[in-house]
Design brief:
2 copies of one chain form a homodimer. With about 350 residues, chain A is mainly beta. Chain A folds into 2 domains: about 220 residues, Oxidoreductase, molybdopterin-binding domain (Sulfite Oxidase, Chain A, domain 2), CATH 3.90.420.10; about 120 residues, Immunoglobulin-like, CATH 2.60.40. Chain A is about 10% helix and about 35% strand. Chain A contains 5 helices and 22 strands. In chain A, the strands form 5 sheets. Chain A has a 6-stranded mixed sheet with strand order 14-15-22-21-17-18, with no helix packed on it. The first copy, chain A, has a 5-stranded mixed sheet with strand order 3-2-12-7-8. In chain A, a hairpin with a 7-residue loop joins strand 17 and strand 18. Chain A is globular, with a radius of gyration of 21 Å. The N and C termini of chain A lie far apart (about 55 Å). Chains A and B meet through helix 1, strand 7 and strand 14 of A and helix 1, strand 7 and strand 14 of B.
Amino acid sequence: MRDFQAMTDFTIEELQLAARNHGLPLEALRYPITPVGLHFVLTHYDIPAVAPQDWRLQLGGRVARELTLSLEDLRARPSIRRPVTLECAGNGRARLSPRPLSQPWLEEAVGTAEWGGTPLRSLLEEAGIGESAVDVLFTGLDRGLEEGVEQQYERSLPLEEALRDDVLLAYEMNGEPLPPQHGFPLRLLVPGWYGMTSVKWLQRITVLDQPFDGFQQRDRYRLRQEEDEAGPPVTRIQPRALMSPPGIPDFLSRMRTLDLVPTVLEGRAWSGWAPIAGVEVSTDGGGSWQPAELGGQAATWSWTSWRYPWEPEAPGTYELACRARDEAGNEQPVEPPWNLGGYSNNAVQRVTVVVRST
Amino acid sequence: MRDFQAMTDFTIEELQLAARNHGLPLEALRYPITPVGLHFVLTHYDIPAVAPQDWRLQLGGRVARELTLSLEDLRARPSIRRPVTLECAGNGRARLSPRPLSQPWLEEAVGTAEWGGTPLRSLLEEAGIGESAVDVLFTGLDRGLEEGVEQQYERSLPLEEALRDDVLLAYEMNGEPLPPQHGFPLRLLVPGWYGMTSVKWLQRITVLDQPFDGFQQRDRYRLRQEEDEAGPPVTRIQPRALMSPPGIPDFLSRMRTLDLVPTVLEGRAWSGWAPIAGVEVSTDGGGSWQPAELGGQAATWSWTSWRYPWEPEAPGTYELACRARDEAGNEQPVEPPWNLGGYSNNAVQRVTVVVRST
């Protein structure tokens, strides 16, 4: 059973999670590559302590030969580095009503790092994928309880996704060894998919001859309206545009104040389904929309910048909004799409600003 | 006027702050030097965008000669590097009842970084401190509104504190340039004092011939019981011990589960008044206390580690607690000390664990 909560009162459990985990402060959308410490972090249990010299990655299951690799072994393999936008599947959850109780993200659970590592595919091929293989399970070192079920965090990928050229075993973030909170010494990195897929603190990869049916695959990360339905799995990132809130904030309310001068609204947009086709901006609460100028993507699964010059006509309160659509035809909804787990709410961001005369 | 809130319902304003700012996940107490991204961060307004080549530090006011320094100028000066424990003055605020509305820290607003920079004192001496000087004002680049007052964040230090040998103009954290959220390119670092003193994104230092009376000095960071009293200023860090919660967590409640085996309770303790004299641990909710073993401090204003071997006698629920006292005779209270701003609540941490048979 899950618990729900009305919009205005967040619980101590939600606060405990919000104090541990953190989002991207939206002004940090200015950085094409998010600095460490500004990229969102969601840790399901505790950050494990790993002694890198003792750590090994095990690869087994339906393979011709099992592999055991040290960090040095992995670093000696072919390496690639690419900017990838990661977003938490629970981003937007705190905007839902009723609100599923879990990490209460508003819209800040995103970041784009330059991830470096070795392709998973060549490692799987070296192990020799069995003919019966259908799924690949990734097990992390982080242990905890959820609804009474003790577990290490683990999730699987269908074999064809695991064999994509751009799926990485990452040991670097922004040119440095992974920070503890991002999975040191090794994590999976699946570009285009929500963050829960990119298992951190990897301990074991297991090739399976049937789809994995564990807690994080069956009980979590499903788009359910009712508890008794299976629901489709959460997979790729839905399109979203975010704006760096313009002007200056009030400390407590975060409400923005802006001078009556020409300004430029800007931000980033991304989708895990296809490149961003367009971003539109509204300065009248969604009454009318104008196209923003796109800056282009640094890589296939990296966000794109956008900008929209705006000249407020008069002092007053304005509700700004932005929305993205991708080349696969997905676009952001105006109303939050609701589900029991509070996943994948990519409803349009709204930013209220008070424009004052100068 | 301030707003208050009952313990069980946190507001959207508090959540917005908690999603932007973040604490030290308590398992990260294991690191003697906190990795970037795990150290607490409190940004009053927005993180400013600074182009380091255009940035200059201005030093003026009651001095014989004004100075303008580039980042290269500062880096060319004598440098020192030292581990310093910083804590937010609002740490513990979310445990108060009624609860002042602001950043709702539980107890995680702490971290110990190795800060590198140049001593403030020699710079002040080079500028020539005027005879009438009493206070030194530090102005950051971060702008915002608080209770309708538009401001750049600024706070002062009494001259004698500013002239302490260990007060730094810091341009490095853990051997790297400051991350944006910790004050890039330059911040003040005042060991022993709560974090609001160590002004980030420094733009200007002004030597004053009277005590600074601005918003962050007069309206904030005062220990008031009533709105109309001045109240003593918040200055040095009160003693606190924190424990890494043992065992494994439940995802949502963060409640801990522990096996019935010998375990070691451990954590860190610090005070801004004097070295830590002792840490005591209770495993019966504060009914009895036993001394923990201290690990020693890496530097005067850096935390000390502590450990306490514990063998739970039987399965069941235990309330663990730890408390520190310093060599100046300050010790942690059992009940939260209340004030209007919710500052400096160093009441004893309590951690509930369920011990299960193995």
